[in-house]
Amino acid sequence: MPRDFDIGKYHDLDPVTRVLMGPGPSDVPPRVLRAMAAPTLGHLDPEFLTLMSETQELLRAVFQTDNALTIPVSGTGSAGMEACFVNLIEPGDQVAVVVKGVFGARMVDCASRLGADVIPIEAEWGRAVQPEAVEKALQGRQPKIFAVVHAETSTGVLQPLSEIISLAKAWGALVLLDCVTSLGGVEVKLDAWGIDAAFSGTQKCLSCPPGLAPLSFNDQAVAKVRARKSKVPSWYLDLTMVGDYWGAERKYHHTAPVNMIYALREALRIVLEEGLETRFARHWLHHRALVAGIEAMGLRMKVPPEERLATLNLVVIPEGADDLTTRRALLAQFGLEIGAGLGPFAGKVWRVGLQGHSATERNVMLFLTALTSVLRAQGVKVSGDGPAAAQDVYAHAGRS
Amino acid sequence: MPRDFDIGKYHDLDPVTRVLMGPGPSDVPPRVLRAMAAPTLGHLDPEFLTLMSETQELLRAVFQTDNALTIPVSGTGSAGMEACFVNLIEPGDQVAVVVKGVFGARMVDCASRLGADVIPIEAEWGRAVQPEAVEKALQGRQPKIFAVVHAETSTGVLQPLSEIISLAKAWGALVLLDCVTSLGGVEVKLDAWGIDAAFSGTQKCLSCPPGLAPLSFNDQAVAKVRARKSKVPSWYLDLTMVGDYWGAERKYHHTAPVNMIYALREALRIVLEEGLETRFARHWLHHRALVAGIEAMGLRMKVPPEERLATLNLVVIPEGADDLTTRRALLAQFGLEIGAGLGPFAGKVWRVGLQGHSATERNVMLFLTALTSVLRAQGVKVSGDGPAAAQDVYAHAGRS
Q1: Interface of A with B in 54-93 (CB under 8 A)
Q2: Are B117 and B247 members of one domain?
Q3: β-pairing verdict for B157-158 and A336-340
Q4: What residue ranges of chain A have pLDDT lower than 50?
């Protein structure tokens, strides 16, 4: 420790309370924060093993699956992506990946690093991929894995899945679904939809702090891992070993992030106490109110109505508004965080999250009134009718 | 969600409070638990970016390094190990790894999966490796990396480093140090010792919940990563990208585990408020008291005195005592967790941690009195002099 090191300059932690309406993390309910702060148990303590089992049961209910291998991976959402690929891919495997935003591109990068022969299926940013494009790209190929993002956090698009899953299955591929921004916010039904492997993050529609990646593999996906000729290249994410810790054996692999699992268990309880259908309807209601407000202001949504995602809304930055000035003013004046555009959308859109605990009427009303104020301060002409239009949606829906 | 799913059966989280004297996690101070439960900030919020910088400064002070690339990896300690290897190794690289316990063997497994040409340097379990053994193993080889565990959590051995580091440097290798069970408990001086890369975990002597892996790379280690011919095979742990998020650019890579970083910052503050030298002396004091008590009871320590690790103590299970019965009784009757033996030591030793917040006189006294009681209940003959012998050590040291 340097002689002049002054520990006194590091003050007590006292972060400001924000309203989190970006792409995630979303606002975390106090119940979840309190659960996370319970005393740490050992990772092999009988009480903790019970909490692990319960967390798995709750995760299965939220994923709508019976998959035995349903666990939180000890890392953030991207660790869940990597866990899927690193276990399922062997070098040279053909892997088809739909790319229509940052997170599809990330899957291509991840799979390529593992030596996969990646077949990218490109679609326009801000749109869903069409079945025809998938069919064309897979013509004459035999991918072992077909990977697609359900809810693209970079574009606010909800991908229709039924037809493209049928196509991928017809070609014999395992279907891998990125549910990071859909799980707990819009419908996800792993078993009914025939999803073989899926991953998510805790900090979006589950409203748990970031740090874990829910993951689920069905028997076919597990069989592919068990049939590998080569060892899984990642020791940390090797599901044959991680699965033994989360399985009946409870065999030590790595020390589980105990308090994060407390938090996830509580967040999942809250999701299921509300009920999945009620929760999905709530997300769609606030999405409709937000869109009505935005359009009444004279602004535009980026994504066509039929492809919009309730949990992540892309608002086109209007002429005359400065991206950074606007976001900084929302943060400074209203404590309100929204997200910047990514990639080709940088500087062109804002990403407004309505995820879990953040998807509320008061957040929608705050966002619309705050945005109106901040844009007008920049001399941008916007109608003041946004909040009333949102209220109209709520009035017709019955208060939620 | 299945129709018969009953959310009511998942009760409020209310884990029992244990005394954690196993191999980790250790007891977490209430200050750390409270800090962790502060409201979640966005991972790009200006307030959070400041907390990140502060956490890095505190980590550097604890690692005793000026390394710019000093960060908490978003995973548990083993993710830190994997982050080191996956960035530093290219396929075919010769990597020398000292193996004298589970965690050396784990490094061999991890490096092998990445295509390294691993040179294992075997030493007896429960002993340190000798410089002669290192010299012999490296004869005629030119490993690019020399990896060694500083504090073997499976054997309770503190590895003397000075001579073997000199040898490795003479052969031109980068030195990679596993500090999981040493950092914050016994002396670790990355810069003064010439360590090129190091990793640790939060849940041992830092007394933070598990979930992050402190990591530090010096310029030579960073240069090896930058000079790679192939991409880092792990997207999640690629330090060229992770480093951009933790560096001046603050470029988004993955969503940081925000609340875990709150917890780590607070845990590091506590470490540095106590002061490193004071803290190390405290660990050695309680270790001496524990050993005095164990030996006064008529039991034996596994490791020779000069190779013992203050933070993890291996007690030989005495004749007539049943391993599981003893540990279960300690947990049930005293709420006291100690660790089982691993590998060849399973059923032969107990692993007793004295780590961070758990390294206290009251824990040493509880352990000695509880163990005496539990062994006697099994009919094992032990002297009742353990607690008094420990008190003697404290009396001579002045109360701590």
Answers
A1: 54, 57-58, 61-62, 64, 74-79, 81-82, 86
A2: yes
A3: unpaired
A4: 400
Q: How many CA atoms lie within 13 A of B144 on its CB side?
A: 18
Q: State residue B23's pLDDT score.
A: 97
Please say whether the dihedral angle defined by the alpha carbons of residues A224, A226, A231 and A233, taken in this order, is positive or negative. Answer: positive
Cβ-Cβ contacts under 8 Å, B18 against chain A: 39, 41-42, 45
Claim to verify: residue A86 and residue A178 sit in the same structural domain: yes
Is residue B358 located within the same domain as residue B389? yes
B273 to chain A nearest CA, in Å? 6
Give contacts of A41 with chain B, Cβ < 8 Å.
15-16, 18
Do B129 and B183 lie in one domain? The reply is yes
What pLDDT was estimated at residue B398? Answer: 73
- Structural domain contains residue A3: no
pLDDT, mean of residues B302-315:
98
pLDDT of residue B1: 61
| Residue B210 pLDDT > 90 | yes
For residue B4, what pLDDT is reported?
Answer: 77
- Strands in B42-103 per DSSP E: 69-73, 94-99
| Domain at A359, CATH number | 3.90.1150.10
Q: Which H or E run includes B218?
A: none
Cα separation, A170 vs A173, in Å, equals: 8
Examine residue B143 and say whether the peptide bond preceding it is cis (omega within 30 degrees of 0).
no
Are B255 and B283 in the same domain? no
Are B37 and A42 in contact (CB < 8 Å)? no
Tokens of B17: 């409070």
CATH number of the domain enclosing B247: 3.40.640.10
Residues B54-88 pLDDT 10s: 999 999 999 999 999 999 999 999 999 999 999 99
Say if A383 falls within a structural domain: yes
Could you tell me if A320 and A337 lie in one domain? yes
Give the Cβ contact number of residue B307 at 10 Å. 16
- Find the distance separating the first CA and the last CA of chain A, reported in whole Å: 55
B269 touches chain A (CB under 8 A): yes
Say how far apart CA A308 and CA A142 lie, in whole Å: 31
Q: A217 is in which domain, residue-wise?
A: 38-273
What's the one-letter identity of residue B309? L
Joined together, the tokens standing for residue B380 give 């094992």
Q: How many CB atoms lie within 10 A of CB B310?
A: 27
Alpha carbon B158 to its chain centroid, in Å, reads: 12
Q: Does A20 lie at the interface with B, CB-CB under 8 angstroms?
A: yes
Contact A14/B at CB under 8 A: yes
Is the N-terminal amide bond of B25 cis, ω within 30° of 0? yes
Q: Tell me the C-alpha distance between A275 and B33, whole Å.
A: 30
Mean pLDDT of chain B: 97
Both A358 and A390 in one domain: the answer is yes
Kindly tell me if the per-residue pLDDT of B400 is higher than 60.
no
Q: Per the domain annotation, does B258 fall within a domain? A: yes
How is residue A173 written in tokens? 């591929």
Question: Binning pLDDT at 50, 70 and 90, where does residue B399 land?
Answer: low
Residue pair A289/A351 in contact by the 8 Å Cβ criterion: no
Kindly identify which residue of chain B lies nearest to residue A210, measuring between CA atoms.
B257
What are the structure tokens assigned to A238, written together? 């090797």
